[in-house]
Amino acid sequence: MIKKIVITATIISALSGILFYGINNDTGLREFTKYYGECEYQQADFQMIGPEDAVFFDEDTLIGCHTNLLKMYILGIPLDQIEKGGCYAVTGIASQQFNIQQLKLIGYPKELNFFPHGQYIKGNTYYVCNHGYEKSNGDRIEVFEVVKSKNGDISLVFKYFTHLGPRFTGDANDLVVLDNQRFLVTDWFPIAFPLEGPSHLSQAERDQIQMFQEKKIRGSHLWECQFKINQLAECKIVEESNGVMVNGVAFDQKDTILISDTLGQKLRSFKIQKDGSLKFHQVIDTRLAADNINYDQVRNQFLVSGTLNSQNDMQNLIPNVQQVQYNPGNKSIITYWAGVDIVKLDEETNQLITSELFTAEKANVIVAGGLISHSGDFLFLTSYADKSISICKKQN
């Protein structure tokens, strides 16, 4: 039986101010499905609400994790009342015979929370930002080995963690692993959350977050960290990375790092110098409340995804959360405008330029990320709040 969540108008007003205080496009929105359309949910026989991020393991397999981030951060539901987080894989992509499987976490301590957020893969090693809260004394980067059996079953074998310290509690959003010693991680809020979870924010803390978002104060950052196996990582802020809500981060596997500022509606790029340091390179305006960034190695381009009318659409979503997250159908039942843009290097100017790839009214609820299959036949949309990922077909 699905438990009903009763939310008063006062609580909706207070809590929805925690996130998405602002992008509001009342006019000019129109669908753009020239390249990809006919989006449908990938149906699963297990709960996978909030499949916020995903990565390609190989051309036939997409791996991702899920957490009901909407209930955790926007509705402020206590942690023990939120659906358990977990991981999944979509297989059969190359043959177009899609199958979705729940992944076992082998060796991960059962006494700890697993509320995954951003992810990164390097070979067979899978890195996950985990909002561990009180049970792990804050956020950690969990490190797994991806194991694929001969019959196609996939599991995640826990190897080690690195702890992120008190500044990152509830805040470790997305990451990039540069090498075995060094990684980058974003903190999407200007303050850390209580160890007990977002439901324990004081009114003063809520007011502080809302002030930062309303006034567009740039109190969120990209951090450069050194791995410390099963210990506290050493982290420092990357200069000129500050934004209103620094969220996604991606690496082109050469010399360029790109980050998103969701509420600032900016992208910022950095160049890796010969000594390994990061130097600010460019700021780009974006039409999106940009969330995740994925690097498409097949086509040598960044894919930036996000919403387009989050403030208005959120007001429509909150009273309908249960219907959306337990929707039995294969298509979204409410409007939540979203898009995916291409960001690519212009070799003549050495600047990154953007172009629109996809815009839709009901592709998925709070689209967080977009990934194109190796063949180019499918666009996968991950989600901050919906029941599953969506798969959109290439249009002729």
TrEMBL record:
InterPro entries given in the database record: 6-blade_b-propeller_TolB-like, Serum_paraoxonase/arylesterase
Transmembrane regions listed in the UniProt entry: 5-23
UniProt keyword Membrane, yes or no: yes
UniProt keyword annotations, A-Z: Membrane, Transmembrane, Transmembrane helix
Origin superkingdom: Eukaryota
Record PANTHER family: PARAOXONASE, PARAOXONASE-RELATED
UniProt-recorded name of the protein: Transmembrane protein, putative
Protein's organism: Tetrahymena thermophila (strain SB210)
Lineage per the UniProt record: Eukaryota, Sar, Alveolata, Ciliophora, Intramacronucleata
